[in-house]
Write a structure and sequence with these properties.
heterodimer, A: about 160 residues, B: alpha+beta, Cytochrome C3, 2 domains, 3-stranded antiparallel beta sheet, about 5% strand
Chain lengths: ~160, ~270
């Protein structure tokens, strides 16, 4: 009889822990929302010692992985000349400054702006990694909006 | 013995009913955590703690558009793939956090991921790479927002009203980054009928949204169909993080706050 009681008690404890003790999910933002408590996998502190690939002069207290990984991400392509930089940026700014009042443009004007976006894209693709990443996204958003406005024109 | 069995069965039935009716209860984040984003594309791989981006502090000072269009942050957590070198080159976080730029000419912003590291930099790294660390924040939500209009959900702040009444004046232009553009022509407001009988229709205000977002944040990435009725929205999809749910429920007030959107009086 005592065994039965014990078994029941264990079963009850398991059931309760399953229903009420399970880790609760975070809210709608899921991974994007910071959990109230830190996950066990997160390192409590930055590594005290520098990894083997860290620069020799890096101070031991500083997370050496920053300088170690950073240069590796720099693309091998040569940076564009100052003149070219100015050219693409002026063109980019000229096109994308028109998104704000794009509803007032005619379909032909908008199509022309989209064509200019397409012509500019290969020039941006030649930039350094970071600049390329930022401006390709900006150009894409700008182009997408212009196409969106074309699509929304009456009669389309 | 009988009593034990009866009690056990009752507990089981009750707990079963609770779970069956509501599913697993979701934990609501604290107001100071609401909207925060963990960035961990490369941090842990590099031996650093993941970055905790404090959304409320940034949205109190900058428009969504400035960061998500001009600076180029994606709308999805982890979608930008920010690397330390990007910040060092003066992009993404490094656009402002470069040790030179100051907020409204007053507060100098600390440098993110500097090329030259000093022994003191460990603490500076911790300002962002803080997940799982007991880092004392420079700004406390309750203190910072003490005079802000309050709201029930999210950060507990009515950001829309805070902007409208001038309590906050989010910057929408950054020298050397933003493009000079003409004033935005604000599109008309419109209504969206609710599918549930008796539920007030939604009055969508373009004006309220464009103050923060301009055009590109929402169109066409979030809202593709522009013609009325071309996209059928459902609350299931919105709760699932689509359409309005891209922002509302993550950073902007959550969709639990029905009356903020369903505002048109039922005739």
């Amino acid at each position: 009889m005592r065994n039965t009681e014990k078994s029941l008690a264990i079963a009850l404890a398991i059931t309760l822990s399953v229903f009420f003790g399970m880790p609760l999910l975070t809210d709608g933002a899921s991974a994007a929302t910071v959990p109230a408590t830190a996950p066990a996998t997160a390192p409590a502190t930055a590594p005290a010692t520098a990894p083997a690939n860290a620069p020799a002069n890096a101070p031991a207290t500083v997370p050496a992985t920053v300088p170690a990984t950073a240069p590796a991400t720099v693309p091998a392509t040569a940076p564009a000349t100052a003149d070219t930089q100015v050219d693409w940026k002026t063109e980019f700014e000229d096109i994308c400054s028109k998104t704000q009042d794009s509803m007032s443009f005619t379909t032909e004007e908008l199509k022309s702006l989209v064509d200019r976006c397409d012509a500019l894209k290969p020039r941006i693709e030649k930039l350094d990694e970071t600049e390329r990443k930022v401006y390709l996204r900006r150009l894409q958003m700008c182009r997408d909006l212009l196409v969106f406005v074309i699509e929304s024109k009456p009669g389309k | 013995m009988k009593k034990v069995i009866i009690v056990s069965l009752l507990v089981l039935i009750c707990s079963g009913l609770v779970v069956a009716q509501t599913g697993t209860k979701k934990k609501r984040p604290l107001p100071s955590d609401y909207g925060n984003v963990v960035m961990n594309n490369y941090s842990e791989k590099s031996g650093m703690a993941p970055v905790v981006f404090i959304h409320w502090l940034h949205r109190a000072r900058f428009t969504c558009r400035l960061c998500h269009v001009d600076i180029g942050f994606a709308m999805k957590a982890g979608g930008t793939n920010v690397k330390a070198i990007d910040n060092m080159n003066g992009y993404y976080c490094g656009t402002c956090h470069n040790g030179k730029r100051s907020f409204k000419g007053v507060e100098k912003m600390f440098e993110a991921c500097s090329k030259k590291l000093t022994p003191e930099d460990g603490k500076r790294c911790d300002r962002c790479h803080s997940l799982g660390k007991n880092v004392k924040r420079e700004y406390d939500l309750a203190e910072f927002t003490a005079k802000f209009p309050k709201e029930r959900f999210g950060n507990g702040i009515n950001w829309e009203l805070a902007e409208e009444t001038g309590v906050i004046k989010p910057l929408d232009f950054l020298d050397g980054v933003s493009i000079k553009r003409p004033a935005l022509t604000i599109q008309k407001d419109f209504t969206l009928d609710a599918k549930v009988e008796g539920m007030p229709a939604i009055v969508f205000s373009h004006k309220k949204h464009t103050v923060w977002n301009g055009c590109e944040v929402c169109h066409p990435e979030i809202f593709i169909g522009v013609k009325k009725g071309s996209t059928k929205y459902s609350m299931i999809e919105i709760f699932d993080g689509k359409y309005c749910g891209v922002c509302h429920g993550k950073v902007a007030f959550p969709t639990l706050d029905c009356q903020r959107c369903h505002t048109k009086p039922v005739s």
